[in-house]
Design goal:
alpha/beta, six-stranded antiparallel β-sheet, 16% strand, Helicase, Ruva Protein, domain 3, 21 helices, globular
């Protein structure tokens, strides 16, 4: 006997055997969290589904998080956090009713926080049921299933409900453990006499960033000299600001100096000040940055670019906390906390005699390493949300979200320019979008990697050239408001070739014609 709905043999014995096996797995489990994922794998195999997720409701924080999954990486699972009422999963928790979406690509409620990969040629359904124990919802169980226009998913829903009931007790136990851990955390914080430290000016919840926050919390109350290491664009200045604002000096000045931006003949005057007539053009006395920072903090960025002659004088300042203005003889005592930052390999510079070793040891009292963005990819989704909100406010736009495909591309990119590059990419995409949603085609060609576009085995050079050509055509269409004739003229090709390229790259010309009304 064959079941058209399930597209498989529908003998009752087969179905019961599956459910009995799951029950036995749960009943005899030695590691319930590992075995729950095994259950989800078996569920996907049985229902020919591609992904399955088990979420748990944390009412203390009004959020829902993925506890176990099949088909998702650890990083993808970490992205699956929802507020109650948000998206499909949030709706199921709020209403305590199952939801079926036949085609996730056409439903705005489907947020795809995890970045589930979809085949554009096939429809993917999303089925989600509540897990209720003793009249209280404790979580949800869901699957993603590729199909060919199936309308009736009632059989799959029944199985999800049954499996949900079988694992409901374990979900409740897991939720209770989370609440107990949270109570222990709160008690620990109470014993420490304060809240968990997180700087207000920094975005990120990854483990690497939490370790960084802990270092900031420890060093901030001291007067120790701090050296912040990390690649360009990781936010070293923000770390310096966080240290200052968490210190006893927060009410005093925070003075920033970009050492690489100051000419060698002016850097001494800028740092220490000068007296009137001390050199040509010194028509009046000038207070240096160290004096300006009195009682507060001075941040010396790009310390690796400071000339050797100035390093000697800075060494004295750090040792004795005294300065002399250029052209002056008076010794001025200063009370300043010094923070430096660099993206250079100072140890290698010492070997090459371009950086003083004694100066290095004076500024390297408490080193802090800021991780690159590729080392904390789990923070990318919340950084994107932060930049969208920030840029919506500054540019008076109303971008609502980013698509799963675009998020996928951002997650796999290497980000050589780090957070600064991510913000620039988001701002560019927000300008290019025509429907208040950031799509993959709004992102620059540099992000169209072989991994994200699935073209790694199809000829790397050809793929890169095609992506650049497509992006160039899109950028031109945006400028000419979707006018194909003008775009062809601007690119120096015939209108016929332009039409063939638009067809080849599946460019939706109406998107760019609609810009005429929106931008006029």
């Amino acid at each position: 006997m064959y079941c058209d709905k399930m597209k498989r043999s529908c003998y009752a014995e087969t179905d019961l055997t599956f459910l009995v096996n799951i029950s036995n797995t749960i009943a005899h489990s030695q590691d319930i969290y590992k075995d729950i994922e095994l259950v989800l794998t078996e569920l996907c195999n049985f229902l020919t589904a591609q992904y399955s997720m088990l979420t748990i409701v944390d009412r203390n924080y009004d959020k829902i998080m993925i506890s176990a999954a099949h088909g998702l990486t650890k990083e993808e699972k970490s992205r699956g956090v929802y507020r109650i009422g948000e998206g499909v999963i949030g709706e199921v928790v709020q209403t305590e009713k199952p939801v079926v979406i036949n085609d996730v690509s056409k439903n705005p409620k489907y947020l795809n926080r995890t970045g589930v990969k979809k085949n554009n040629n096939q429809m993917m359904a999303f089925l989600c049921v509540p897990i209720i124990l003793k009249n209280e919802i404790t979580g949800t169980l869901s699957i993603h299933k590729v199909h060919q226009g199936v309308i009736d998913f009632s059989a799959e829903l029944k199985f999800l409900n049954i499996v949900g009931m079988l694992i409901g007790k374990n979900v409740s136990m897991r939720r209770r453990q989370i609440e107990e851990l949270e109570e222990l955390r709160k008690e620990n914080l109470k014993l420490r006499g304060g809240k968990s430290f997180k700087p207000d000016n920094i975005v990120g919840n990854s483990s690497l960033m939490n370790d960084l926050y802990s270092l900031i919390e420890k060093v901030a109350p001291t007067n120790s000299t701090v050296m912040i290491r990390g690649e360009s664009g990781v936010g070293k200045e923000l770390i310096a600001e966080a240290i200052h604002h968490a210190s006893d000096r927060s009410s005093k000045p925070f003075i920033k100096v970009n050492c690489s931006a100051l000419p060698e003949n002016l850097i001494e005057s800028e740092l220490f000040g000068h007296e009137k007539g001390s050199f040509t053009g010194a028509n009046s006395s000038h207070t240096g940055r160290f004096e300006m920072a009195s009682g507060g903090t001075i941040f010396l960025d790009e310390i690796g670019d400071v000339p050797l002659s100035i390093q000697v004088k800075l060494l004295r300042v750090i040792q004795q906390r005294q300065i002399e203005r250029v052209g002056g003889s008076e010794t001025i005592n200063i009370d300043v906390r010094i923070i430096t930052a660099t993206n250079k390999d100072l140890e290698e510079m010492i070997k090459q005699n371009t950086f003083r070793e004694d100066f290095y040891y004076r500024i390297n009292v408490f080193p802090i390493y800021v991780p690159a963005l590729r080392e904390r990819r789990a923070d990318i989704p919340i950084l994107i949300d932060h930049f969208i909100a920030k840029l919506n406010k500054s540019n008076r736009t109303n971008i609502k979200r980013i698509t799963g495909g675009a998020l996928d591309m951002l997650m796999v990119y290497s980000w050589p320019g780090n957070i600064r590059e991510l913000e620039n990419v988001i701002e560019r995409a927000m300008i290019l979008t025509s429907d208040d949603v950031i799509h993959s085609y709004n992102l620059p060609p540099t992000l169209q990697t072989g991994i994200s576009s699935n073209t790694m085995d199809k000829g790397a050079l050809k793929g890169i050239l095609e992506r650049v050509e497509k992006q160039l055509i899109i950028d031109t269409l945006i400028v000419v408001r979707g006018n194909i004739t003008k775009a062809a003229n601007q690119l120096g090709i015939t209108e016929r070739i332009m039409g063939l390229r638009i067809k080849k790259y599946h460019i939706q010309i109406q998107h760019y014609k609609s810009l005429t009304n929106e931008l006029s």
